[in-house]
């Protein structure tokens, strides 16, 4: 099943790109997600809780970048996990593409999801999964904006290092710089409540229904 979502980051592309590549920080903005550890190979282990209609699902698995193009600002990632009540497995290939959008940046997310086991029945409800995914993406974007929107200095792209001679001269002539402020602790986003998800999905369904009838 292919799903397409998008969200906006209130930062210019260079800074937004740095944000997207700070996995531990952005994991704290994802509703229902908890980062547990980083493996030596660069993959991350975590859990994700999500609700599809009346059913609550909890997955434990891995997330890893497979490709990263810093020039095109494009990432190909892979996620795989097992439902913790043994109701099946999920695997997703995800492509993130970041582009300039006015004074900020836009991120398009293309996901190819494969479900197996008893949870595969939800694959038949593509509209429900698409709507639920957008609700989660919208909440993630809101959390991300709060986390980074007013703190661009913490994600600014570092300047190139000076040559050794210049660095030595500057060190001798200039007073010692003040130490940088400590990074803010990562705050994990709370899972979206069932009521919130169901209400927003219902509103999305209504918009699609009446929007289609006017066409």
Could you characterize what this model shows?
The chain is α+β, with helices and mostly antiparallel strands. 31% of the residues lie in helices and 34% in strands. The protein has five helices and seven strands. The chain has helices at residues 13-20, 23-27, 126-148, 164-173, 194-214; strands at residues 2-9, 33-38, 44-52, 55-69, 74-83, 89-101, 104-116. The chain has a seven-stranded antiparallel β-sheet with strand order 1-7-6-5-4-3-2. A hairpin with a 2-residue loop joins strand 3 (44-52) and strand 4 (55-69). Helix 3 packs across helix 5. It is globular, with a radius of gyration of 20 Å. The chain starts with a strand and ends with a helix.
Lateral arrangement of strands in the main beta sheet: 1-7-6-5-4-3-2
The number of distinct β-strands equals: 7
Structural class: alpha+beta
**Helix proportion of residues, in percent?**
25-40%
- Estimate the global geometry from the Cα principal axes: globular
- Quick check: average pLDDT? 75
Major sheet characteristics? 7 strands, antiparallel
Low-confidence stretches: 151-189, 193-210
- How many whole angstroms does the radius of gyration measure? 20 Å
Strand coverage percent? 25-35%
SSE series: EHHEEEEEEHHH
Distance between the termini: 26 Å
* Helix run count: 5
């Amino acid at each position: 099943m292919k799903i397409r979502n998008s969200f906006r980051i209130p930062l210019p592309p260079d800074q937004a790109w740095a944000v997207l590549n700070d996995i531990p920080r952005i994991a704290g903005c994802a509703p229902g997600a908890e980062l547990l550890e980083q493996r030596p190979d660069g993959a991350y282990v975590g859990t994700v809780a999500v609700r599809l209609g009346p059913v609550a699902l909890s997955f434990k698995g891995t997330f890893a970048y497979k490709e990263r193009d810093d020039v095109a600002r494009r990432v190909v990632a892979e996620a795989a996990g097992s439902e913790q009540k043994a109701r099946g497995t999920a695997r997703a290939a995800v492509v993130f593409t970041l582009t300039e959008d006015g004074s900020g940046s836009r991120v398009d997310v293309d996901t190819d999801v494969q479900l197996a086991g008893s949870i595969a029945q939800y694959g038949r409800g593509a509209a429900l999964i698409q709507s639920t995914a957008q609700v989660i993406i919208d909440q993630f974007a809101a959390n991300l904006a709060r986390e980074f929107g007013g703190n661009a200095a913490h994600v600014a792209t570092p300047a190139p290092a000076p040559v050794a001679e210049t660095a030595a001269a500057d060190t001798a002539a200039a007073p010692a710089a003040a130490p940088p402020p400590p990074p803010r602790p990562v705050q994990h986003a709370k899972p979206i409540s069932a009521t919130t998800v169901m209400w927003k999905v219902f509103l999305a369904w209504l918009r699609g229904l009446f929007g289609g009838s006017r066409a």
